[in-house]
Write a structure and sequence with these properties.
Blueprint (H helix, E strand, L loop, with lengths): L3 E5 L5 H8 L3 E6 L3 H10 L4 E3 L8 H8 L6 E4 L8 H4 L13 H12 L3 E6 L7 H12 L3 E8 L10 E8 L17 H5 L21 H7 L1
Parallel strand pairs: 1-2, 1-4, 2-3, 4-5
Antiparallel strand pairs: 5-7, 6-7
Helix pairs in contact: 5-6
């Protein structure tokens, strides 16, 4: 069965890339930021990108963009600046930010499309946020089986210590976040050690250098 998806709050397309690597057909995406949208189109030229504020987009609009395709997976990373640890480290208070309520737009699109599957990724702090709880309760009312938890991506093969909240939902049966036991921890070195030296690279991006101290360089290894 082909799984077709829409990626909300798509950014430059990182989640879309992961979905495609998993065999998912991402037929559409939504992104409001002009620079991010430009990068997305370069990374995923075959995916229809809707460049607009999600608050202006109706489910009917999405249907028009994807024609006869049925979307059976809605994925997204609603903006999280208001409850990021960077913003909330003073007493752990959630910062009032209008983007905090965009998770309800994510929910609105799910309610309209009623996909078989849901994926959401966000900062750990969102788990204590009122509208996250509202979203979870509503998804359960709609019949979704849910599993959500905070994971450390380094346990899943990513060369970075970073905690993220992951939520999976399914209308067709119980769902669970994969165990991290199948993954091997990696380092930055594992991914870039075989790149050619800067002076030998034909990629202009590899010629953009950061000047790190020897102490910081050792951390990369």
């Amino acid at each position: 069965m082909e799984i077709t998806a829409i990626d909300l709050f798509a950014g430059c397309g990182g989640l879309t890339q992961g979905l495609k690597q998993a065999g998912v057909n991402v037929v559409a995406a939504v992104e409001i930021n002009g620079n991010a949208a430009k990068a997305y189109k370069m990374n995923h030229p075959e995916t229809t990108l809707i460049e607009d504020d999600i608050r202006n987009i109706d489910v009917e609009d999405i249907s028009n963009f994807v024609s006869e395709k049925k979307i059976n997976l809605v994925a997204g990373c609603p903006p999280c600046q208001g409850f990021s640890s960077v913003r909330t480290r003073n007493r752990g208070n959630i910062v009032e930010d209008e983007r905090n309520t965009l998770i309800l737009e994510f929910l609105r699109i799910i309610e309209g499309i009623k996909p078989n599957f849901i994926i959401m990724e966000n900062v750990p702090g969102i788990i204590h946020y009122h509208y996250f709880k509202v979203t979870v309760d509503r998804l359960i009312e709609l019949g979704y089986y849910l599993d959500y938890r905070v994971i450390n991506v380094e346990d899943y093969g990513v060369p970075q210590r970073r905690k993220r909240l992951v939520l999976l939902g399914s209308l067709v049966g119980e769902v669970s976040i994969p165990s991290d036991t199948a993954y091997k921890r990696t380092t930055v070195k594992d991914y870039i050690y075989n790149l050619p030296p800067v002076e030998e690279s034909n990629d202009p991006m590899h010629r953009i250098l950061s000047r790190h101290s020897e102490k910081v360089k050792k951390l990369f290894l």
